[in-house]
Amino acid sequence: MIYMTFTSAALAMAPATGGAQQAGAELDRRVEAYLKAERNNWDYLNVPYQDGKILHDLIVKGGHKAILEVGTSTGHSTIWLAWAAAKTGGRVTTIEIDRARHEKALAHLQKAGVAAFVDARLADAHVLVKTLPGPWDFVFQDADKEWYLQYFLDLAPKISSKGCYTAHNVARPYSSETVAFLDTARKRADFSFRFAENASDEGISISCRR
Are 152 and 172 in contact (CB under 8 A)? Predict the structure, then answer.
């Protein structure tokens, strides 16, 4: 059985450019303050701070709007993704199978001020990912490593033109399936492939549709 929990609808757009800019600046201050305050408090294998920033910057630079995260944990990376989505006019769909982690993530998203930009789902990604229609402009994969190759096979056809597929924990692969994923991603002629610069020791791979 798949359980789903959804956050509130996206915030309405400000009626004037000045108001939108002010709201954006206020959100920036709120998110930055929260990420700074919680920087050393993340557990449950959340991404390091520098990796979250890399994901945020990739989304903003690419103008990506339809964002999928496979593996919410307690929401550190999700905050970075949602913050970027707030700047591009996008939205994040994130999937977590563990109820306790899912509920902690919802609380973090609310406190950081980005819950309105997230559709947080409590579900088995093995099942749900196959049913999500896409297209996706940006995917961040950080769930069970034994399923890395299968997630990529399921989602690669749903990546939009110029869209990107990223994966965490690839600098020192934890499973043979992660190695197979990297080998497959490198050989895809319709995707470019590289590793993110200045990432943590865990590494981030980036595959973007040509």
Answer: no
Domain count, the chain: 1
- Token reading at 136: 């996706």
Strand pairing of 204-209 and 159-168? antiparallel
d(CA 136, CA 123): 19
CB 121 within 8 A of CB 128: yes
Question: Reduced to 3 states, what is the DSSP secondary structure of residue 184?
Answer: helix
Spatial distance between the Cα atoms of 57 and 89, rounded to a whole number of angstroms: 14
163 within domain boundaries? yes
CATH number at residue 116: 3.40.50.150
For residue 19, what pLDDT is reported? 73
Instruction: Please state, in angstroms and rounded to a whole number, the distance separating the CA atoms of residues 55 and 74.
Output: 17
pLDDT reading at 4 higher than 50: no
The pair of three-digit structure tokens given for residue 156, joined into one six-digit string: 């690669």
* Under 8 Å between Cβ of 64 and 163: yes
Identify the DSSP state of 16: S
* pTM (predicted TM-score): 0.90
Domain extent at residue 83: 17-209
Residue from 77, 85, 88, 78 nearest 51 by CA: 77
103 in a structural domain: yes
Does the structure show a pLDDT above 60 at 9? Answer: no
Q: Say if 1 falls within a structural domain.
A: no
In a domain, 175, yes or no: yes
